[in-house]
Write a structure and sequence with these properties.
This protein has 64 residues and is α+β, with helices and mostly antiparallel strands. The chain has a domain of 34 residues. The protein contains 2 helices and 4 strands; from the N terminus they run αββββα. The longest helix is centred in the first third of the chain and has 8 residues.
């Protein structure tokens, strides 16, 4: 069984744990619609980098 040689001080323990925190997700603003979305993801309206890449699904469901 492993036995530590000496006690870890609270400052050393805190320095080791300083990198364990979670980072906030990076958000972007779509230039066309002004919506906030995750970086490198399509906005809720279907726009990516100023161009519409996903057609609106509400138009297709009106035919039914």
């Amino acid at each position: 069984m492993a036995v530590q040689k000496s006690k870890r001080t609270p400052s050393t323990r805190g320095a080791r744990r300083g990198h364990d925190k979670l980072s906030k997700k990076t958000l972007s603003i779509e230039p066309t619609t002004g919506e906030t979305h995750l970086r490198h993801h399509v906005s809720p309206d279907g726009f990516y980098r100023g161009q519409q890449v996903i057609a609106d699904t509400a138009v297709e469901s009106d035919d039914e």
